[in-house]
Specification:
- This protein has helices at 2-23, 42-55, 71-80, 94-102, 132-139, 166-176, 191-200, 210-214, 250-259, 262-270; strands spanning 34-40, 62-69, 85-88, 107-122, 129-131, 157-161, 186-188, 204-209, 220-222, 224-226, 236-245, 274-275.
- By secondary structure, the protein is of the alpha/beta class.
- It folds into 2 domains: 34-114 and 238-275, D-Maltodextrin-Binding Protein, domain 2 (3-Layer(aba) Sandwich); 115-236, D-Maltodextrin-Binding Protein, domain 2 (3-Layer(aba) Sandwich), CATH 3.40.190.10.
- The strands form 2 sheets. Strands 1, 2, 3, 4, 6, 7, 8, 9, 11 and 12 form a 10-stranded mixed beta sheet that branches. Strands 5-10 form a two-stranded parallel ribbon.
- Strand 6 (157-161), helix 6 (166-176) and strand 7 form a beta-alpha-beta unit.
- The protein starts with a helix and ends in a 5-residue tail after the last strand.
Length: 280
């Protein structure tokens, strides 16, 4: 009897334990982190990657993926919903706006950094300032002698970048339109080579990103350009954009806010751009 009672008690405890285990709630799986996909302009890609590296650790449940492909591809991904942010080296075109409207997709435009180009000349060249029309005529090949723009009787040597380079594309858009670049200039393989060729060629003219020029002002001068009333320009500035798909998550809002910070401007400068907090 005693043995049977012990066995019965053991069975009861085992049964009770089983009921308790059966009634215990299953462990809650960890929440999946939010992923922000940023796609588009290769001009902005390295800057955006650096911003993501600094911003993501402040949001532990956040992953940020940055991929290039070009501004056009960025808008396509944004429209398709495969990215939350499109990087763009230009404003959205009317055709693109129509596509977003037709797809009932609303986006916010944010300027996050700025590109700037400068026109360069040799330090011995006495011409310090020209109007924009004269500069265009020099770079399209119409003007071949400096005396035609008020300078000495010396032939113009035009230093260009590869036509497919981002530098050449930006110069065509900011300075040359509707004119085109001459095909008779000397093509430099890099920004540094532009500086080197102009510093070694007294009557040369060329262009480069302004930040590349700052450390070489002992070798070349920046040509001031008159574009209308007011003081002549040292640089031609082009905004760089984030286009964000609505509605914005809290993390996307915070990331865009970060791009407008002093630290984000420092990062932009490290990659050769002006941030929003950099004076112009």
């Amino acid at each position: 009897m005693r043995k049977a009672a012990v066995l019965s008690l053991g069975c009861l405890l085992a049964t009770a334990s089983g009921i308790a285990l059966a009634q215990s709630p299953a462990p809650t799986p960890p929440a999946r982190p939010e992923r922000i996909v940023i796609s588009g302009s290769t001009t902005l890609q390295k800057v955006a990657e650096h911003w993501a590296q600094e911003f993501a650790p402040t949001r532990p449940a956040l992953e940020i993926m940055v991929q290039g492909g070009g501004t056009d591809k960025g808008f396509e991904a944004l429209l398709a919903g495969t990215s939350q942010i499109a990087m763009a080296a230009r404003e959205m075109l009317e055709g693109e706006k129509s596509a977003f409207a037709a797809g009932h997709v609303v986006v916010e435009e944010h300027i996050v950094a700025r590109d700037a180009l400068a026109v360069l000349k040799n330090k011995t060249n006495p011409v310090g300032e020209l109007d924009l029309a004269a500069v265009r005529r020099m770079f399209d090949g119409s003007v071949t002698n400096w005396r035609e723009v008020g300078g000495p009787d010396q032939p113009v040597t035009v230093i260009l970048r590869n036509p497919t380079s981002s530098t050449a594309e930006l110069f065509r858009r900011l300075v040359m339109a509707p004119s085109t670049l001459t095909e008779k200039g000397k093509v430099a393989a890099s920004q540094q080579e532009v500086v080197d060729q102009i510093s070694n060629t007294p009557w040369a003219i060329g262009f480069a990103y302004f930040d590349r020029v700052l450390s070489h002002l002992d070798q070349v001068d920046v040509l001031r350009i008159r574009t209308g009333e007011g003081p002549a320009k040292l640089v031609f500035v082009s905004p760089l954009y984030f286009y964000a798909r609505m509605p914005l998550s809290d993390n996307v809002k915070a990331l865009i806010e970060f791009t407008k910070s002093a630290r984000a401007s420092e990062i932009a400068a490290e990659h050769g751009y002006f941030g929003l907090q950099d004076p112009m």
